[in-house]
Amino acid sequence: MTPDETLEAIHTVLGQHMMHPHLDGFGPEARLNEDLYLDSVLILQIFLNLELEYGLSVPEEAIARQDVQTVADLVALYQPKAVASVVPSFPLTGGTTDEGVHGEAYYDIKVHCFVSCVCDGLKRQGLDHRPFYFGVWDAKFAVSDRFQLLYHAPDITQEFFRAWFQRLYGVTVREWYDPAASKSDNLGTMLDLVHRRTDTGSVMVMLDMFHLPERENKFNQNPFPHYLMLQETADPNTWFVHDPDYRWEGEIARDKVIHAVMQPTVGGGYVFDNAEARAPAAEDLKAYFEACFVAKRNPLVDSVREIVTAHLEGRGGMDLADLTAAVRELPVITIRKYAYEHGFAFFWRALKLPAREFEGWCDEIETLVQSLKALHYDCMKLSQTGSHALAAPVFERLAEADRAETKLKGKLAEIFGLWCEQNVTADIPMLKRVAR
Questions:
Q1: Using one digit for the tens of pLDDT, what is the confidence trace for 128-177?
Q2: Which end of the chain has a smaller Cβ tally under 10 Å, C or N?
Q3: Domain-by-domain residue ranges, the chain?
Q4: Under CATH, to which class is 3-77 assigned?
């Protein structure tokens, strides 16, 4: 297809096949997220419909591209060209790119809103926040009784992270939100905390990002529970909003923020003082890693395999057509796997291991992420076609992701053991080296 024909096919897919309601500004320069309200899942849906309806397909790498911003970018994916390597969409922090893992430059990974908020205070105090990401790559998620993958659910709390942050860094993180109190009473508490906030203090609140349309929402979830931090400005009608996870800060009308906080879909908040932060003891870091590390299995892969199997077998009245909705939140959880890079980087620097080998393991992390993104696409294709013949590629992709993550964990366990030998007075056996 020519570029113009591809552009027309995308418009047809959005309007006729996906019944997308936001097409008034459609055109080559239209921004996918900000103008057309297309999140990452809907973009995958475009790929899938173009493949099924027009026989158009893109290289597998394109499914996970981070630089597709406009309709013109989408059209360009279908034009002949060399495929560029995929680079995570995280900005480099400090230093220069040629310093490697032993320099001050590193990708500023933001993949968990609570963790990003508390770690922001560590960076402000000049402390290394990367060890706290040990708990992110397998952070808790849920599978509903309808076999739906959920990154947020009533039984998922931040207590594990809160308690460990306090133990590791000495910062008292107090939960101010009282689930037994009314929304109005909790709002009153929050208003008082924001008003009394000190220069080194942080007031964190959970709000529904879906109700802040001014903010970019890559996943476009409804609802979209999300933690960020608030403070007053000189204007009583405006608040300064600091969102470390989305790398955004700026002023938003106070009433709009309160509206998002008061939604029945959300509830939660914490307060802490960054000035209390101190470097963690090696013994505590060892205990935290061991509390986080799931060595013998990969919970996300296991859960998606169970979800797919349940839909194939029709358990509880499930149908393959329901699978797309069941795995809709997979991208939100997939990006947590980038936290492995912080884990590798922390131990790699401490052990002064070769920088070139570290880059190789970063490639392995990227391989895992890409396999999970391709898995999501394959699940959507299985769901939309309803063809059981397409189940085999899904299970092959699951096995691929399982192998990739198991390999990462094997190497991480090895270097963790080496680090413990050098830093902790404990009898930890050497682990077998993982071949690359």
A1: 999 999 999 999 999 999 999 998 888 899 999 999 999 999 999 999 99
A2: C
A3: 3-77, 92-162+279-423, 172-276
A4: mainly alpha
